[in-house]
């Protein structure tokens, strides 16, 4: 079951944005997220807005989806132009899901082509698609690269068969080195996504997964703690006592092990759950989210943010397709993020990155709280006292220690007062 949409104000049927979105727009990058809401099967832990082919029909079918999504791209171009925003080429495109690669490569190329034809791409644009290891071939990856994709993020999750079985993942873990090699042969950058904390996963299981990922030589790894969301099949299994969730100490030990192994292999953390070999290997699309840049989210349930206005589309693909067919915005609701809410969001996102959050951006009360966080070992004391230099003009900043990364929410609460 997909998560409920946020509360918010009604969104206008034409999608019109307030004039305030123009403020500072020229300094903000513009990206596009394309949501593909289809999977071959739905994994028991997943609460993303996804559907199997047999659940949908009509204008919401996989065959019709590219045309439907491109209708929203056209609407987006009109809305942004009517708001008086400056022309900006797209710097990042991220195709997520679901499993985007269940669509034919021609459809993915068509979606990217629509974005390119509408806004243009910057010369160094990052164009990523997510993929399951069992949803690609050497030919399909080569075709994605030829269409303009530059990066692929594989949902590896684990290298251990019994862990994958608990997650209800369908791919053979022995396929991981092959798909990484195929992607690199096609000229694509590669990321591997891992999940730790699956019921029944031992520390040795987790070590095997991280070491298997590193053995492929990838330059980017994401590692996320499993969160069992209400409404999923796994939540039902946990409630019935069929699965036992690990405790917080187990999760912390696995995070620390991953950080040790990834760091030793030459990958540095740049966000709490993400490691890259060099700054150039970091996911620029996700960095744009954390910086508060502008992006338009295309697809059912997709979220967008432009100039402090955030909105989200209707969730069901049929409702999404119906609204676009009637010339209406698919937005279900929206909110304006300003004042205290904007400051809290900058705090929540900024402290999660290795760049840190400038102390100058904090409220007086929050600045006073920094010393206590340093004393507790959650914030790096040297960074908190750093002097501005020509190479690093920011000066003092809140930079999480590894213990602080494990307790990032507690740091945010302390700074938010």
UniProtKB/TrEMBL annotation:
It comes from the Bacteria. Its main location: cytoplasm. Pfam families: Radical_SAM (PF04055). It is found in: Cytoplasm. GO terms for cellular component: cytoplasm. GO terms for biological process: porphyrin-containing compound biosynthetic process. Probably acts as a heme chaperone, transferring heme to an unknown acceptor. Binds one molecule of heme per monomer, possibly covalently. Binds 1 [4Fe-4S] cluster. The cluster is coordinated with 3 cysteines and an exchangeable S-adenosyl-L-methionine. This is Heme chaperone HemW. It comes from Cellulomonas fimi (strain ATCC 484 / DSM 20113 / JCM 1341 / CCUG 24087 / LMG 16345 / NBRC 15513 / NCIMB 8980 / NCTC 7547 / NRS-133).
């Amino acid at each position: 079951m997909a998560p409920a949409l946020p509360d918010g104000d009604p969104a206008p049927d034409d999608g019109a944005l307030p004039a305030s979105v123009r403020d500072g727009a020229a300094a903000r990058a513009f990206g596009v997220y394309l949501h593909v809401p289809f999977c071959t099967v739905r994994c028991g832990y997943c609460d993303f807005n996804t559907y199997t082919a047999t659940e949908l029909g009509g204008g919401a079918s996989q065959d019709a989806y590219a045309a439907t999504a491109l209708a929203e791209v056209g609407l987006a171009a009109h809305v942004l132009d009517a708001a008086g925003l400056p022309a900006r080429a797209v710097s990042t495109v991220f195709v997520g899901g679901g499993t985007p690669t269940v669509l034919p490569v021609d459809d993915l190329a068509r979606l990217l082509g629509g974005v390119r034809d509408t806004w243009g791409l910057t010369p160094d644009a990052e164009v990523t698609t997510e993929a399951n290891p069992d949803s690609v071939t050497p030919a399909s990856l080569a075709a994605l690269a030829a269409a303009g994709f530059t990066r692929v993020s594989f949902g590896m999750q684990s290298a251990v068969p019994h862990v994958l079985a608990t997650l209800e993942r369908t791919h053979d873990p022995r396929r991981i080195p092959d798909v990484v090699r195929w992607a690199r042969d096609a000229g694509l950058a590669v990321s591997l996504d891992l999940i730790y904390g699956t019921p029944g996963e031992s520390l040795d299981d987790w070590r095997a997964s991280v070491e298997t990922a590193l053995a492929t030589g990838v330059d980017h790894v994401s590692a996320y703690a499993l969160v069992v969301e209400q409404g999923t099949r796994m939540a039902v299994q946990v409630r019935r006592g069929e699965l036992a969730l690990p405790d917080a100490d187990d999760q912390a030990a696995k995070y620390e092990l991953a950080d040790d192994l990834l760091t030793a292999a030459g990958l540095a953390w740049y966000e709490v759950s993400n490691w890259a070999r060099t700054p150039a290997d970091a996911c620029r699309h996700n960095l744009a989210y954390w910086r508060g840049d502008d992006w338009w989210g295309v697809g059912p349930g997709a979220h967008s943010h432009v100039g402090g206005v955030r909105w989200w589309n209707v969730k069901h693909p049929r409702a999404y397709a119906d609204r676009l067919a009637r010339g209406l915005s698919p937005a279900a609701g929206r909110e304006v993020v300003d004042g205290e809410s904007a400051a809290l969001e900058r705090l929540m996102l900024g402290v999660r990155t290795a760049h840190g959050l400038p102390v100058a951006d904090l409220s007086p009360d929050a600045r006073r709280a920094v010393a206590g966080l340093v004393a507790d070992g959650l914030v790096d004391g040297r960074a908190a006292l750093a002097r501005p230099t020509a190479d690093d003009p920011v000066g003092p900043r809140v930079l999480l220690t590894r213990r602080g990364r494990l307790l990032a929410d507690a740091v945010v609460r302390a700074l938010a007062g």
